[in-house]
Inverse folding.
């Protein structure tokens, strides 16, 4: 069964760092864009960052300069390095892979909590 598995979430103090990973399992292939999204309690899910096959990146204004998205196409894995974390970064973080032939896959999410 094709799926994405996130890891790396946790509790951190403001100003700290976390690195999220999202690995594709099963027979997911033809991955085009990889992205990270987040959803805070009571809010809609929002885009955090995306990266294309050509490593072109896009970031939400709220995370520019603090977060870095990257990918490893051999491992079919996306990463999100999060530095200078703020309490408002607290959310469930989801990864999404967009595949050329089979569409979108979503992970189940990993919780990030930032204490002040």
């Amino acid at each position: 069964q094709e799926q994405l598995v996130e890891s790396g979430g946790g509790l951190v103090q403001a100003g700290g760092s976390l690195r999220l990973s999202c690995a594709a399992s099963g027979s997911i292939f033809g991955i085009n864009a990889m992205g990270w999204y987040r959803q805070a309690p009571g809010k809609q899910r929002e885009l955090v960052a995306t990266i294309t096959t050509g490593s072109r990146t896009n970031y939400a204004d709220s995370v520019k300069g603090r977060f870095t998205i990257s990918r490893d196409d051999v491992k079919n894995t996306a990463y999100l390095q999060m530095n200078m974390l703020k309490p408002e970064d607290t959310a469930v973080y989801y990864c999404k892979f967009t595949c050329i032939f089979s569409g979108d896959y979503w992970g189940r999410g990993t919780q990030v909590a930032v204490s002040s």
In short: DSSP finds no helices and eleven strands in the chain. The radius of gyration is 14 Å.
